[in-house]
Amino acid sequence: MKADKSAELLEQVRQQMGDGKFSRAFATLKDLLASNPSHQEGRRLLARLLLKFGNLATAKNAFETLVKEALQRQDFQEAESLLHEYLTAGPRCVQFLEMLGAAYELKGDPLAAVFEYEKAIDILLEDPDPERPDYSQVLFRKIKQLAPSSFVANRVAARLQPPPSAQPPTSTSSEASTSGDDLSHSRAEAFFDVHQEGTVETVGRDEDDDAVAYTMVAGSDDPDADVNVNREPIARRSTGALGENVPFPPVNQRPDSQIQTHEEGDNEASEPSGFGAVPVCEPSDVGFYSEESEKAASESQTQTPAPVSSEPVGLSRSEPPPTFRVENDAKQDLYWTRVMDGGHSGTADQGLSSLGGGAERGGKDSERPKPRRQYGRAIGAWISFRLSILMRRLIATTNSLTKLGMFVCLAIVAWIVLIIGGTAALWLGLEQKPSETFQRLIDVAPTKTLEDWKNNGYILLMGFGATPSLDPMQTGYDRWLSAATEWNAGCLDRSAKSRSLVRSSPNAQKPADWFKTPDPSAQFVAEGAQVKETLDPQGSSVSRYRQWLNLPFEDWGFSRLSSPDCEQILAAHRLYLAEGFAQSLGAGLDRLETDLTAWRKVLAQAKTLSSKVMAIDGINDDVAVMSGLLIRPAIDNKITQRMIRLARPLDPEERSLRWPMQNEFALSVKRMEVRVRPHSDTDSSMAVLVGKMPLPKQRTLNTYALYYDALIKAAGLSHAYTPKLYEFSNTPARSWLDYGLNPIDNLIVADPVQDWQALNGAIVETDARLRLAGLQARFRAPSSDSLISRLAQAGPSFFDPFTELPMLVNGTRGTLYSVGMDRKDDGGDPTFDVSVPFLQ
């Protein structure tokens, strides 16, 4: 139960000290030590409170006693902690610095001890001890014993070097130094000496006594006396906090020969002497505790209280209790009043005299003037204190935020470096050697049948846009020889909803619109002459187009980044047809046959995608003119037969995309170096950063080779699945992993991806238009068979190329139609189906 009560009281003390209620904590500590005088933690807290209250002499003695006991137990860590705690408040206490050095010696750390002795010497040089003028020499001898040849010894020796005019020391001082040296040598051992015998007797004070007198009574004969009384002297506090007896071990016992008693009328107060009988070291950094309850208690003592007596713990009941005079209590109250009210000595002395006189008159009531409280100064001090706390907190918060910001920035930089390094290592590990498929595709190239560039229509198409004063063949050849640095989109319009693969300017849009009418040849006659004067007033474009029709054609654009200007060529092609039909129907039919034959040759011989799609658009224009003529009510039978001969389905070579696919792969290989080269003026910062890293270029090209190899194989099969580029090279990106597997296409710039399914559908759609035109021509001949029978009799060559079934008929609309690229029957709707009108 005693241990439980001690633990409970100790917890209350800690809570009260944490709440700033130091007076209550002191009272609770009194109860704790009354029940358990040897409670180590309680005694330490009491020493700390004494230091807080400003009871400097008692606090120093308390700390000194605790240090000695810790050294006796060889608990050097506890001793160092206690010494550091006091030295934090009073860093210039030479005695405690010496004790700390001695503790380090006992601990086995002479170097630390030397440094503490050096600190003590520095303080003594600034503020010598008048009672021990040779104190610094004694400490220096200790340094010489511990580290005779160290830099610390040399440094201290230089400081202690007397000036040239100094007189040599006398023999008396030498002897004193020697005796002081002997005393200091034995001091470390004396730290362990805590006397275990004798009792303390608290003697009643006379009227003029100022402090408690401690008398050592050695060898007491009283069998009832407590043998541990030496560990339990009386530490008295002021009224309200220090007015009762609290046990605490004696600090420095003295022999009987040194016992002094205070005579009556002695006005000098005595404090317990410190270690080595030196003056008390008052801390310089202690803020004394001041509380309103303390002040109230002090004011309540203006009337002389009745004599108070208490029985010290540890004494036998037979001994008379110690007596404390009222005058002593009043003086102690005045001491606390001076501490808490800023030390108004005049008021304190006046009160002291008043209380002294009252005590002499037999304890009669006496009045003491109350200390005047300066509210303005108190408020200013309180505001200054609060502002200083606020400033410290702001500075601490700023420092914390600054450190946090620096940490976050460093963490971000570290993560960026880590991510970049890991990504570079990943891409370096992904790099491959040229695969077998890559080598097989890159080694394939078409053979040339035309050797003379002056006799090749492809060269003329390359220079078709040259000014009228220049030779288009020479210009085209120069362009073909020059190595293009950037890829030209050429004739491609990759819009999925666009029916035309060739991009048209506003000037060339008018002829293109003619072919969307039901009978384009009629528009030629009505508007051809006017459009020709606008687009080709000198007739140079039509003249060059006519020259091209008479030349052999071979596509030399394989593995070339440049391509012909399809827009100008198709505009001249449309003007050429319009000019012929504007002259006469026969001239128009001749030009139509020549033009269709030339474009079918280009479609069959095309090695590049630009030539292929340009030929598709040219054939679609010719088929539109043929369909428009075949819906006229009156037309010569010879024209019908001529149309049947021209409207024949495409052969496999004309439908093949094998060489355009092969060419696109070769262009991908050629464009690789240009794509990965960083361009800081046009590319994003991410693309520039990625471009400077080790990219898996060959791995990307190997995936391209697999993709185009699968495309070429699927192009030779009807209704085969068209593979997607993502299945091979993870582009366009669909997840974050794709960016790491293919950084070239997903982070820098993607290689132009052709919609091969749409391109193949456009070729099949052109084939369907040719077949529908052939059926239109055949249906003009009179027959007794039904329309369905005549569709079946036309044969598989005129079946729907999308379904390999006979073409469909919408009798209500009077149209023949194919299901188109969506392979859905929409009833002949020209928006979704490929349809043409026919005469029933």
Written overview of the protein:
It is a single chain. The strands form four sheets. A three-stranded antiparallel β-sheet has the order 7-8-9, covered by helices on one side. Strands 1-2 form a two-stranded antiparallel ribbon. A two-stranded antiparallel sheet has the order 3-4. It is 56% helix and 3% strand. α3 runs antiparallel to α4 and α7 packs antiparallel against α8 (135-146). The longest helix is centred in the middle third of the chain and has 56 residues, at 375-430. The chain is elongated, with a radius of gyration of 57 Å. Among the domains are: 2-163 and 170-190, Alpha Horseshoe (Serine Threonine Protein Phosphatase 5, Tetratricopeptide repeat), CATH 1.25.40; 453-648, no CATH class; 660-758, no CATH class; 782-837, no CATH class. A hairpin with a 4-residue loop joins β7 and β8 (815-818). It is mainly alpha-helical and 840 residues long. It has 33 helices and nine strands.
